[in-house]
Amino acid sequence: MEFRDNKAIYLQIAEYVCEHILLGKWKAEEKVPSVREMAVELEVNPNTVMRTYELLQNKNIINNKRGIGFFIDENAIENVKSFRKVQFMDDELPVLFRNIYLLNIGFDELKSKYETFVKVNFNA
């Protein structure tokens, strides 16, 4: 995984975990990699992974079964969507709106591009 400089690493790891859940790679009730395993895989400090797991636990995306490890919550998909939606609306949408306004992009053009994107990427 290549990390970007503009966002904390633990948040980027949280996005990575959430994406795996949304794509169905990690399913409800499945065990997630241990803190050590994830740290080795992503080449980061275990404390960084622990911080990620604590955040995801607080958002009810994963839960800790003491002595066994971390597992995907049964409602993880809904919780991920809720968590990511708030992040998107607060952080990314204002930047997008600013660019749409500055570049004078119409909603019809935007809709067309969006529909093409979905067709190419998700209706294979």
From TrEMBL:
Residues 7-75 form the HTH gntR-type domain. This is GntR family transcriptional regulator. Keywords: DNA-binding, Transcription, Transcription regulation. PROSITE patterns: HTH_GNTR (PS50949). The keyword Transcription applies. The keyword Transcription applies. Transmembrane segments: none annotated. It comes from the Bacteria. It comes from Pedobacter frigidisoli. GO terms for molecular function: DNA binding; DNA-binding transcription factor activity. InterPro entries: Tscrpt_reg_HTH_GntR, WH-like_DNA-bd_sf, WH_DNA-bd_sf.
